[in-house]
Write a structure and sequence with these properties.
By secondary structure, this protein is an alpha+beta fold. The protein starts with a strand and ends with a strand. The chain is globular. The N terminus is likely disordered. The strands form 8 sheets. Strands 1, 3, 5, 6, 8, 9, 10, 11, 12, 25, 26 and 27 form a 12-stranded mixed β-sheet that branches. Helices cover 18% and strands 32% of the residues.
Length: 631
């Protein structure tokens, strides 16, 4: 609902709108603009506060700390009058990072459809800031966004992690919860840092200079969009499956008996299609029983690299432009018929090796019944194309998002930060520790809160080779994240048991949100709870064996599903070999026939550490680590 404004000149910062949530038990700052010299009276919770618009047309006021509650009305009275309605006071959290923080509830419905169906909670609210960037310095103007409370429609757009965190937090403390969502998919950490920090880190001078050249940015974007548009126009023009005056390749009447065969799902790697970019058509015909004819269904096509168009009996039923979203295309009533039905999928491969991601669901889903679509499909190349030219995503560049989306919030009061990012820095994991610890301190300086709680998600298990990453890149990012725990008032959520090896965007955001809420109980509210899995603290060598000690053991260490796995050990040659691990109370002893004199130990040191099974008795997984005798 938009703010009820009955004024032309008097205004407040864009985040102060109907339905907003203000931070309890902390000084609340309000600010905006107005006519210079205008005397303002702010009335809130039956108390009045006054200020005057300064000569530059800016005003600001601080309200004293107040307990949770609401809804309230906030009035601002000067020469004109503003009213902001339905205001709550509770705990407000800044959600930052990239796509896994941004991922909406709507993308997790395979797991949580029943749970969120019909949900309504006016005490949980989200304000999502639209993506914008600026390379010329911090801006004062908040880019907009509106506050929404949880209802059956709005919840689908909530950050899934944020929603499940807020749900757990509200159940624990019974106070309103506000989420300010600033996360933007694909962003590296540098985009969220101030120019001062980026300059101190060094190495970004040329990028910053280019981005500050507005003419360069505009011309680059225009020329790249022109090339992109030309590529797709040429693709569609040359595609034999779309040729005019011929039977379309999505049409069930087409004879595909001479087409090649391909087993779905599978990567194109190692097949005749490995080097193909452009369009490739796939077709499959099924025999549908009369009982299902005309019924509504959901066509599930897993995940496809890169884009696709799906057809059923010649009718277009769905399109996805890029590889990450799950393909779930509703089939309307009446389209399916008794007997033969033909599915056609036009796959557009632009840069990577194409394919159908294994381990996903490829089916025609009727709810209680599914028809499996995996197996043999017919295929034929529609047209080969050169590799699609790379695009410059300027919102990925250093400082831009910080200046436009974080700096404008500097005066807003938050209980803490929830952060989920790191995937986009996996190309240079050795730099991440310095970048991440720098960002935490940078944001604390920005918000003038030296102890601002900063809770973050350690990257989950994932087969990073699917993204072209090698050399334990995700393992190294996780270790850099673990190192950030040395900064006071930080907390880390370990998730190596919650990811999906074949999906960069795992759906299980509920367990992550609940673990993060537990983390907040300990780090933010100082409660005597155990919110962290075991952390390796030290290693000693005894009789050729490595002895590890841990913190955060809670009621004790344990292994899930048998003996401890995923430990490796190295000697003086630096080569790591599998190690046998034995629990002895709250320590672990390691030995390996290949290593006589251990110098280093690793645990879960893989991008997808599927064998890792060290937990504490409270059910929290141990963080991956590397430790050496020189540590």
């Amino acid at each position: 609902m938009p703010t009820s404004i009955r004024a032309q000149k008097l205004s407040v910062a864009g985040i102060f709108q109907d339905g907003m949530v203000l931070q309890r038990d902390r000084v609340i700052r309000l600010w905006g603009s107005g006519a210079p010299g205008d005397f303002l009276q702010i009335t809130f919770r039956e108390h009045a506060y006054t200020t005057t618009v300064d000569p530059a047309g800016f005003w600001e006021i601080s309200l004293p700390p107040m307990p949770a509650g609401g809804p309230f009305e906030l009035q601002i009275q000067g020469q004109e009058k503003m009213i902001i309605e339905d205001v709550l006071v509770g705990d407000v959290w800044l959600l930052g990072g990239q796509s896994n923080m941004e991922l909406p509830v709507s993308r997790t419905l395979d797991l949580y459809a029943e749970e969120v169906f019909g949900v309504e909670n006016p005490w949980i609210r989200q304000c999502r800031l639209p993506m914008t960037y600026n390379f010329h310095g911090p801006t004062l103007k908040i880019p907009g966004g509106s506050w929404e409370s949880v209802n059956p429609q709005s919840v689908l757009g909530f950050s899934a992690l944020g929603y499940f965190f807020a749900q757990a937090h509200h159940e624990q403390y019974g106070v309103p919860v506000g989420l300010v969502l600033t996360a933007v998919g694909g962003t590296p950490i540098e985009a969220w840092m101030s120019e001062g920090l980026i300059t101190r880190l060094g190495g970004y001078e040329d990028i910053l200079a280019q981005c500050k050249d507005d003419a360069y940015v505009a011309s680059t974007m225009a020329s790249e969009m022109e090339r992109l548009d030309h590529w797709y126009k040429e693709l569609n023009h040359k595609d034999l499956g779309l040729a005019p005056n011929k039977v379309a390749w999505g049409d069930p009447a087409l004879d595909d008996s001479l087409w090649g065969t391909f087993t779905v799902p599978a990567s194109w790697r190692g097949s005749d299609l490995e080097t193909v970019h452009g369009s490739v058509w796939f077709r499959k015909t099924i025999n549908l029983p009369t009982s299902l004819a005309g019924e509504r269904a959901l066509l599930r096509l897993g995940a496809i690299i890169d884009g696709d168009e799906a057809y059923l009996n010649g009718i277009h039923v769905g399109t996805t432009d890029y590889k990450y979203p799950p393909r779930k295309y509703p089939i309307p009533e009446g389209l399916l018929r008794a007997g033969l039905n033909t599915f056609a999928v036009r796959v557009i491969s632009n840069r990577d090796i194409g394919g159908f991601i294994p381990g996903k669901d490829y089916s025609l889903d009727f709810g209680e019944r599914k028809i499996d679509l995996a197996g043999e499909w017919r295929y034929k190349v529609g047209t080969p194309m050169p590799t699609l030219p790379q695009l410059t995503f300027f919102h990925y560049k250093p400082c831009g998002l910080y200046n436009a989306m974080i700096a404008p919030l500097a005066k807003y009061t938050f209980r803490g930060v929830l952060w989920y990012q790191g995937e986009s820095n996996a190309n240079a994991p050795e730099l991440y520790e310095r970048l991440f610890t720098g960002l935490i301190r940078n944001w604390r300086e920005t918000f003038k809160e030296p102890n601002l709680p900063f809770l973050f998600v350690q990257l989950p298990n994932f087969d990073a080779s699917m993204e072209g990453k090698t050399g334990f890149s995700w393992a190294k990012i996780r270790d850099a994240q673990r190192s950030a725990l040395e900064i006071p008032h930080t907390g880390m959520v370990v998730t190596i048991d919650l990811g999906e090896a074949n999906d960069l965007h795992p759906q299980n955001k509920k367990d992550i949100g609940e673990r993060m809420a537990l983390c907040a109980q300990e780090v933010v509210f100082g409660e005597p709870v155990l919110a962290q899995g075991p952390i390796c603290e030290s290693m000693t060598i005894e009789n050729g064996e490595a002895v590890l000690t841990f913190s955060h053991v809670g009621s004790g260490l344990l292994s899930r599903g048998g003996s401890l796995e995923s430990f490796t050990m190295a000697g003086s040659d630096g080569k790591f070999y599998p190690a046998q691990a034995e629990l002895q109370g709250n320590t672990i002893r390691l030995r390996s026939k290949a290593v006589d004199n251990p110098t280093a130990v690793r645990y879960a040191w893989e991008d997808n550490p599927k064998q890792a099974n060290l937990y504490n008795a409270e059910g929290l997984p141990a963080s991956p680590f590397v430790i050496s005798t020189s540590s």
